[in-house]
Design goal:
It is built from ten helices and six strands. The protein has 278 residues and is α/β, with parallel strands linked by helices. The chain is globular and about 65 Å long. The two termini are 15 Å apart. Bound molecules: guanosine-5'-triphosphate (GTP) and magnesium ion (MG).
Protein backbone atom coordinates (compact mmCIF):
# COMPACT_ATOMS: atom_id res chain seq x y z
CA UNK A 1 0.00 0.00 0.00
CA UNK A 2 2.65 2.51 1.06
CA UNK A 3 4.77 1.83 -2.02
CA UNK A 4 1.75 2.22 -4.31
CA UNK A 5 0.80 5.52 -2.70
CA UNK A 6 4.34 6.83 -2.96
CA UNK A 7 4.59 5.94 -6.65
CA UNK A 8 1.18 7.48 -7.35
CA UNK A 9 2.23 10.61 -5.54
CA UNK A 10 5.41 10.91 -7.65
CA UNK A 11 3.44 10.59 -10.90
CA UNK A 12 0.81 13.12 -9.91
CA UNK A 13 2.51 16.07 -11.63
CA UNK A 14 1.87 14.55 -15.06
CA UNK A 15 -1.82 13.94 -14.38
CA UNK A 16 -4.81 16.10 -15.37
CA UNK A 17 -7.61 14.25 -13.58
CA UNK A 18 -7.71 11.58 -10.90
CA UNK A 19 -10.31 8.84 -10.62
CA UNK A 20 -10.64 7.38 -7.14
CA UNK A 21 -12.22 3.95 -7.50
CA UNK A 22 -14.00 2.41 -4.53
CA UNK A 23 -15.97 -0.79 -3.89
CA UNK A 24 -19.74 -0.21 -3.81
CA UNK A 25 -20.14 -2.93 -1.17
CA UNK A 26 -18.13 -0.97 1.40
CA UNK A 27 -19.05 2.62 0.52
CA UNK A 28 -18.13 4.13 3.89
CA UNK A 29 -15.78 1.80 5.71
CA UNK A 30 -13.24 1.35 2.91
CA UNK A 31 -12.49 5.02 2.27
CA UNK A 32 -8.79 5.73 2.55
CA UNK A 33 -8.22 9.42 3.23
CA UNK A 34 -4.56 9.07 2.23
CA UNK A 35 -5.71 9.33 -1.39
CA UNK A 36 -7.00 12.86 -0.74
CA UNK A 37 -3.57 13.81 0.50
CA UNK A 38 -1.74 12.54 -2.56
CA UNK A 39 -4.37 13.83 -4.99
CA UNK A 40 -3.97 17.31 -3.49
CA UNK A 41 -5.65 19.96 -5.61
CA UNK A 42 -6.06 17.83 -8.75
CA UNK A 43 -9.66 17.40 -9.87
CA UNK A 44 -11.00 14.10 -8.54
CA UNK A 45 -13.93 11.93 -9.55
CA UNK A 46 -15.11 9.30 -7.07
CA UNK A 47 -16.37 6.13 -8.72
CA UNK A 48 -18.04 3.28 -6.88
CA UNK A 49 -17.42 0.17 -8.95
CA UNK A 50 -19.09 -3.27 -8.66
CA UNK A 51 -22.49 -1.59 -8.35
CA UNK A 52 -23.94 -4.84 -9.75
CA UNK A 53 -23.19 -6.38 -6.36
CA UNK A 54 -25.49 -4.09 -4.34
CA UNK A 55 -29.16 -3.17 -4.64
CA UNK A 56 -30.15 -0.10 -6.60
CA UNK A 57 -32.03 1.36 -3.61
CA UNK A 58 -28.71 1.53 -1.74
CA UNK A 59 -27.09 3.39 -4.65
CA UNK A 60 -29.63 6.20 -4.27
CA UNK A 61 -29.11 6.42 -0.50
CA UNK A 62 -25.33 6.55 -0.77
CA UNK A 63 -25.30 9.07 -3.64
CA UNK A 64 -27.68 11.34 -1.69
CA UNK A 65 -25.62 11.02 1.50
CA UNK A 66 -22.44 12.12 -0.27
CA UNK A 67 -24.12 14.99 -2.10
CA UNK A 68 -26.21 16.38 0.74
CA UNK A 69 -23.92 15.73 3.68
CA UNK A 70 -20.44 16.08 2.18
CA UNK A 71 -21.14 17.99 -1.03
CA UNK A 72 -19.34 15.32 -3.04
CA UNK A 73 -20.46 13.86 -6.36
CA UNK A 74 -20.00 10.13 -6.63
CA UNK A 75 -20.98 7.87 -9.51
CA UNK A 76 -21.83 4.16 -9.40
CA UNK A 77 -20.97 1.72 -12.11
CA UNK A 78 -20.10 -1.77 -13.14
CA UNK A 79 -17.33 -2.67 -15.55
CA UNK A 80 -19.69 -5.32 -16.89
CA UNK A 81 -22.21 -2.80 -18.21
CA UNK A 82 -21.34 -1.04 -21.47
CA UNK A 83 -23.78 1.79 -20.87
CA UNK A 84 -22.04 2.53 -17.54
CA UNK A 85 -18.70 2.69 -19.29
CA UNK A 86 -20.05 5.07 -21.96
CA UNK A 87 -21.53 7.25 -19.21
CA UNK A 88 -18.20 7.20 -17.40
CA UNK A 89 -16.34 8.24 -20.57
CA UNK A 90 -18.81 11.11 -21.08
CA UNK A 91 -18.41 12.20 -17.46
CA UNK A 92 -14.64 12.33 -17.89
CA UNK A 93 -14.96 14.44 -21.05
CA UNK A 94 -17.39 16.82 -19.33
CA UNK A 95 -15.13 17.11 -16.32
CA UNK A 96 -12.13 17.96 -18.49
CA UNK A 97 -14.18 20.70 -20.17
CA UNK A 98 -15.44 22.12 -16.87
CA UNK A 99 -11.93 22.14 -15.46
CA UNK A 100 -10.68 23.80 -18.65
CA UNK A 101 -8.11 21.09 -19.20
CA UNK A 102 -6.71 21.16 -22.77
CA UNK A 103 -8.56 18.46 -24.71
CA UNK A 104 -5.48 16.95 -26.30
CA UNK A 105 -3.32 14.37 -24.64
CA UNK A 106 -5.49 14.15 -21.55
CA UNK A 107 -3.86 12.01 -18.84
CA UNK A 108 -5.87 10.42 -16.05
CA UNK A 109 -4.74 8.39 -13.10
CA UNK A 110 -6.72 5.59 -11.47
CA UNK A 111 -6.17 5.20 -7.73
CA UNK A 112 -8.01 3.09 -5.16
CA UNK A 113 -7.83 0.26 -2.69
CA UNK A 114 -6.84 -3.24 -3.84
CA UNK A 115 -9.27 -5.32 -5.89
CA UNK A 116 -11.89 -2.60 -6.46
CA UNK A 117 -11.62 -3.09 -10.23
CA UNK A 118 -9.25 -0.30 -11.25
CA UNK A 119 -7.51 -2.23 -14.02
CA UNK A 120 -10.83 -3.73 -15.19
CA UNK A 121 -12.32 -0.25 -15.50
CA UNK A 122 -9.45 0.94 -17.68
CA UNK A 123 -9.65 -2.20 -19.85
CA UNK A 124 -13.40 -1.71 -20.32
CA UNK A 125 -12.97 1.93 -21.32
CA UNK A 126 -10.27 0.95 -23.79
CA UNK A 127 -12.47 -1.81 -25.20
CA UNK A 128 -15.31 0.62 -25.92
CA UNK A 129 -13.28 3.76 -26.59
CA UNK A 130 -10.60 2.21 -28.81
CA UNK A 131 -12.06 -1.19 -29.76
CA UNK A 132 -8.85 -2.67 -28.40
CA UNK A 133 -8.36 -5.78 -26.30
CA UNK A 134 -7.42 -5.90 -22.63
CA UNK A 135 -4.17 -4.07 -21.87
CA UNK A 136 -3.92 -4.64 -18.12
CA UNK A 137 -3.85 -7.76 -16.01
CA UNK A 138 -6.82 -8.21 -13.66
CA UNK A 139 -7.68 -10.87 -11.10
CA UNK A 140 -9.98 -12.04 -8.33
CA UNK A 141 -7.46 -11.45 -5.55
CA UNK A 142 -5.96 -8.15 -4.36
CA UNK A 143 -2.45 -7.19 -5.42
CA UNK A 144 -2.64 -8.08 -9.12
CA UNK A 145 -1.24 -4.75 -10.28
CA UNK A 146 2.16 -4.55 -8.65
CA UNK A 147 3.51 -1.23 -9.87
CA UNK A 148 2.51 1.89 -11.76
CA UNK A 149 1.73 0.93 -15.34
CA UNK A 150 2.57 2.64 -18.60
CA UNK A 151 -0.12 4.90 -19.95
CA UNK A 152 -2.99 3.07 -21.59
CA UNK A 153 -4.83 4.82 -24.37
CA UNK A 154 -8.58 4.71 -23.89
CA UNK A 155 -9.89 7.29 -26.37
CA UNK A 156 -8.69 8.69 -29.69
CA UNK A 157 -10.83 11.80 -29.71
CA UNK A 158 -9.96 13.57 -27.50
CA UNK A 159 -6.72 11.64 -27.11
CA UNK A 160 -6.99 10.26 -23.59
CA UNK A 161 -4.67 8.07 -21.55
CA UNK A 162 -4.97 6.31 -18.21
CA UNK A 163 -2.25 5.49 -15.69
CA UNK A 164 -3.11 2.44 -13.58
CA UNK A 165 -1.72 2.13 -10.06
CA UNK A 166 -1.36 -0.79 -7.66
CA UNK A 167 -3.87 -1.09 -4.86
CA UNK A 168 -1.18 -2.58 -2.68
CA UNK A 169 -1.57 -5.30 -0.12
CA UNK A 170 -1.84 -9.00 -0.77
CA UNK A 171 -4.01 -11.57 0.97
CA UNK A 172 -1.36 -12.77 3.35
CA UNK A 173 -1.51 -9.32 4.99
CA UNK A 174 -4.72 -10.31 6.76
CA UNK A 175 -5.85 -13.47 8.53
CA UNK A 176 -8.40 -15.31 6.32
CA UNK A 177 -10.26 -16.69 9.33
CA UNK A 178 -10.83 -13.21 10.77
CA UNK A 179 -11.97 -11.91 7.39
CA UNK A 180 -14.25 -14.94 6.97
CA UNK A 181 -15.77 -14.32 10.41
CA UNK A 182 -16.51 -10.73 9.49
CA UNK A 183 -18.11 -11.81 6.22
CA UNK A 184 -20.14 -14.57 7.79
CA UNK A 185 -21.62 -12.11 10.25
CA UNK A 186 -22.93 -10.04 7.34
CA UNK A 187 -23.97 -12.83 5.00
CA UNK A 188 -25.29 -15.62 7.22
CA UNK A 189 -28.92 -15.22 6.14
CA UNK A 190 -28.06 -15.87 2.53
CA UNK A 191 -26.09 -19.06 3.06
CA UNK A 192 -27.59 -22.54 2.67
CA UNK A 193 -26.15 -23.81 5.96
CA UNK A 194 -26.49 -20.80 8.20
CA UNK A 195 -24.65 -20.85 11.49
CA UNK A 196 -23.29 -18.11 13.72
CA UNK A 197 -20.18 -20.01 14.57
CA UNK A 198 -17.33 -19.39 12.16
CA UNK A 199 -15.53 -22.62 13.01
CA UNK A 200 -18.68 -24.73 12.47
CA UNK A 201 -19.32 -22.94 9.23
CA UNK A 202 -15.78 -23.36 7.91
CA UNK A 203 -15.78 -27.00 8.94
CA UNK A 204 -18.93 -27.75 6.93
CA UNK A 205 -17.64 -25.72 4.01
CA UNK A 206 -14.20 -27.36 4.17
CA UNK A 207 -15.77 -30.81 4.01
CA UNK A 208 -17.97 -29.83 1.09
CA UNK A 209 -15.11 -28.50 -1.00
CA UNK A 210 -12.72 -31.24 0.09
CA UNK A 211 -10.27 -28.94 1.87
CA UNK A 212 -8.81 -31.67 4.06
CA UNK A 213 -5.44 -32.29 5.65
CA UNK A 214 -3.88 -35.68 6.20
CA UNK A 215 -5.90 -37.55 8.78
CA UNK A 216 -9.14 -36.10 7.40
CA UNK A 217 -8.99 -32.86 9.37
CA UNK A 218 -10.61 -29.88 7.71
CA UNK A 219 -8.15 -27.24 6.55
CA UNK A 220 -9.87 -24.24 8.14
CA UNK A 221 -7.58 -21.66 6.54
CA UNK A 222 -8.18 -23.12 3.07
CA UNK A 223 -11.94 -23.12 3.70
CA UNK A 224 -11.77 -19.49 4.86
CA UNK A 225 -9.78 -18.48 1.77
CA UNK A 226 -12.31 -20.26 -0.45
CA UNK A 227 -15.19 -18.42 1.24
CA UNK A 228 -13.49 -15.02 0.78
CA UNK A 229 -12.69 -15.82 -2.84
CA UNK A 230 -16.34 -16.67 -3.54
CA UNK A 231 -17.47 -13.47 -1.89
CA UNK A 232 -15.11 -11.46 -4.08
CA UNK A 233 -16.53 -13.09 -7.17
CA UNK A 234 -20.03 -12.04 -6.12
CA UNK A 235 -21.10 -15.64 -5.49
CA UNK A 236 -23.29 -14.68 -2.53
CA UNK A 237 -25.25 -12.16 -4.54
CA UNK A 238 -25.76 -8.55 -3.65
CA UNK A 239 -24.13 -7.75 -0.34
CA UNK A 240 -23.71 -4.32 1.11
CA UNK A 241 -21.43 -4.49 4.13
CA UNK A 242 -22.01 -0.95 5.44
CA UNK A 243 -25.05 0.46 7.22
CA UNK A 244 -26.62 3.03 4.87
CA UNK A 245 -29.65 3.79 7.04
CA UNK A 246 -30.01 7.36 8.32
CA UNK A 247 -28.25 6.31 11.51
CA UNK A 248 -25.42 4.66 9.60
CA UNK A 249 -24.99 7.73 7.40
CA UNK A 250 -24.91 10.00 10.48
CA UNK A 251 -22.22 7.87 12.06
CA UNK A 252 -20.17 7.85 8.87
CA UNK A 253 -20.42 11.63 8.34
CA UNK A 254 -19.45 12.30 11.95
CA UNK A 255 -16.40 10.08 11.64
CA UNK A 256 -15.51 11.53 8.23
CA UNK A 257 -15.63 15.10 9.52
CA UNK A 258 -13.82 14.40 12.78
CA UNK A 259 -10.36 15.97 12.95
CA UNK A 260 -7.89 13.23 12.27
CA UNK A 261 -4.99 13.09 14.66
CA UNK A 262 -2.05 11.18 13.29
CA UNK A 263 -2.46 8.19 15.57
CA UNK A 264 -6.20 7.96 14.94
CA UNK A 265 -5.67 8.17 11.25
CA UNK A 266 -3.07 5.45 11.36
CA UNK A 267 -5.41 3.23 13.35
CA UNK A 268 -8.23 3.85 10.91
CA UNK A 269 -5.99 3.16 7.95
CA UNK A 270 -4.93 -0.15 9.44
CA UNK A 271 -8.58 -1.07 10.02
CA UNK A 272 -9.50 -0.02 6.52
CA UNK A 273 -6.66 -1.91 4.94
CA UNK A 274 -7.89 -5.00 6.70
CA UNK A 275 -11.55 -4.55 5.85
CA UNK A 276 -10.77 -3.70 2.26
CA UNK A 277 -8.70 -6.77 1.67
CA UNK A 278 -11.84 -8.89 2.08
N1 LIG B 1 -19.00 -8.04 -10.01
C1 LIG B 1 -18.08 -7.23 -10.52
N2 LIG B 1 -16.78 -7.62 -10.52
C2 LIG B 1 -15.88 -6.76 -11.04
C3 LIG B 1 -16.24 -5.49 -11.56
N3 LIG B 1 -15.11 -4.88 -11.97
C4 LIG B 1 -14.10 -5.72 -11.74
N4 LIG B 1 -14.55 -6.86 -11.18
C5 LIG B 1 -13.74 -8.02 -10.74
O1 LIG B 1 -12.98 -7.60 -9.62
C6 LIG B 1 -11.72 -8.28 -9.58
C7 LIG B 1 -10.59 -7.27 -9.41
O2 LIG B 1 -10.45 -6.54 -10.59
P1 LIG B 1 -9.09 -5.76 -10.94
O3 LIG B 1 -9.40 -4.90 -12.12
O4 LIG B 1 -7.94 -6.69 -11.04
O5 LIG B 1 -8.95 -4.85 -9.63
P2 LIG B 1 -7.78 -3.82 -9.25
O6 LIG B 1 -8.41 -2.70 -8.48
O7 LIG B 1 -7.01 -3.44 -10.47
O8 LIG B 1 -6.93 -4.71 -8.26
P3 LIG B 1 -5.36 -4.55 -7.85
O9 LIG B 1 -4.57 -4.34 -9.09
O10 LIG B 1 -5.06 -5.86 -7.21
O11 LIG B 1 -5.32 -3.42 -6.88
C8 LIG B 1 -11.64 -9.09 -10.87
O12 LIG B 1 -11.99 -10.43 -10.55
C9 LIG B 1 -12.70 -8.45 -11.77
O13 LIG B 1 -13.25 -9.36 -12.70
C10 LIG B 1 -17.63 -5.12 -11.54
O14 LIG B 1 -18.05 -4.04 -11.94
N5 LIG B 1 -18.49 -6.03 -11.00
MG1 LIG C 1 -5.06 -3.70 -10.92
Amino acid sequence: MAKGLRQASEMMRKVDLVIEARDARVPFSAINREFERIIGSKPRLIVYNKADLIHFSAVKKITTAFKERLNQDVIFMSTKKDKHIYYFLDTIKDMAKTQKIPQSNLTLMMVGMPNVGKSSLINSMRALGMRRSKALKTGANPGVTRSIQNRVKILQNPETYFIDTPGGIRDDAADPEIMADYLLYHTKLKLPYATDNILDFLTILGKRIGALRTGGYVDITAAASHFIHKYREGFFGRILLDDVSEEGVNRFVEEYNAPQSLSNRQARMAARNNSNSI
